[in-house]
Amino acid sequence: MSAVDSCLDVIARRAGREPVIAAIILGTGLGALAEGASDAVALGYADLPGFPRIGVSGHAGRLVIGRIEGVRVALFEGREHTYEHGRPAAMRVVIEVARGLGAGVLVLTNSAGSLDPGAGPGTIMMITDHINLTGYNPLIGETGDERFVDMTTAYDETLRQRLKAAATARDIPLGQGVYAWFTGPSFETPAEIRAARALGADAVGMSTVPEVIIARRLGLRIAALSMITNPAAGLGPPLDHAETRTLAGEGATRLGALLGQFLRDLAHDPLA
Asked: Residue ranges of the domains in the chain?
């Protein structure tokens, strides 16, 4: 039995076999979103074969199956980052399990630094595209033509319109922009930020992009949201991971309200 099949068996025994509408990966400081799920069953990543072993503060390392706004979802509290070991495909089993649970939609969240002076801490930015500045790709080593994944519409246009509508319905300001992926774990230098800005980036972070590539390889539709926690290097005070966790947590209520409306709309009006 594969790691994915083993995970799905464990989940079915603990949480039942009812499919989920969507899966959500929660970034640094955003785990509180899972606390709002009703009828919830939580499973530690350590109980799920092939799941990451979380080594970053602000990531609980749990899968929560429950309901938000009455919609059954899978919430993944925490991710493994490429900077922990150099493996960009570390989240593949997680994303395959999300698909196996029935999710056709994957929502990715992260904490990010802003390159836009008008988008300060507390801003929610919907990702419209990304720039991979790392040289890593999670599909390296795969064989077959399926590895040549089209990334032209990686961030699903219909889902982006749904997020905009949800933000309007809840009166939540929602920015949008391009996310640049740096490996970390050190924060970027001011020169690197100037380069990223020249290339068209609006925010920077250390995650999400490899997950998007894997999810597109698996045929999932993707939406992604960055919680802006700080100005990027050289645009504000010195950067600090503890502050990132704190500011992300403070914005989690708005992000939760946005996702709740988005999920409710998705359940009432499924995608074609």
From this structure: 3-267
Hey, what amino acid is at 59? H
| CATH code for the part of the protein at 3-267 | 3.40.50.1580
Instruction: Give the pair of three-digit tokens for residue 264.
Output: 């409710």
Taking CA atoms, 143 is separated from 91, 147, 212, 220, 250, in Å, by 19, 7, 19, 20, 43
- For helices 241-268 and 157-170, what crossing angle results, to 10°? 100
Q: What is the largest CA-CA distance in the chain?
A: 51
Question: How many other CB atoms are found less than 10 A from the CB of residue 93?
Answer: 20
Q: Evaluate the omega torsion of the peptide bond into residue 237 and state whether it is cis, within 30 degrees of 0.
A: no
| Burial of residue 18, with CB atoms counted within 10 A of its CB: 0-12 exposed, 13-18 middle, 19 or more buried | exposed
Model confidence, pTM: 0.92
pLDDT digit string, tens, across residues 206-252: 999 999 999 999 999 999 999 998 888 667 666 565 655 666 566 78
Q: Which tokens sit at 40?
A: 């919830």
